[in-house]
Amino acid sequence: MEWKLRSVALAMAVVLAVACTMEVAAQSLCKMSQEGLDACRPCISTVKPAEQPSDACCAALKQADLPCLCSYKNSVLLPYIGIDPKRAMQLPAKCSMAAPQQC
Question: What is the mean pLDDT of residues 41-61?
Fold first, then answer.
């Protein structure tokens, strides 16, 4: 019975963390607006991703705080909200930008 309570608590914690992540993303994330994040979503999606980012995505990425975005590269929550971290890390190169050295 105790393990069931722990499982439920863990599941609730994951749902809460994902909801909080989505709420932060709805406002802005690392100086990227919701519109910028939405523009990049097709090429970082876990399902049938686009090969190349749109011009709107690259424009948003050029305004973003790349070191801040790098801090999310190992997040286990990103796949739960449909984002492939490996594809996200490829965005600067696809937008002809240099990735941060510490990324």
Answer: 96
Domain parsing of the chain, residue ranges: 2-94
Contact predicate 68/30, CB 8 Å: yes
Please identify which residue in the block is written with the tokens 């739960």.
80
Cα 26 to Cα 30: distance, rounded to the nearest angstrom: 12
- Nearest by Cα to 73 from 56, 61, 91: 91
Class of the CATH domain delimited by 2-94: mainly alpha
**Residues 15-41: tens digit of each pLDDT:** 444 444 444 444 578 999 999 999 999
CB atoms within 10 A of CB 23: 9
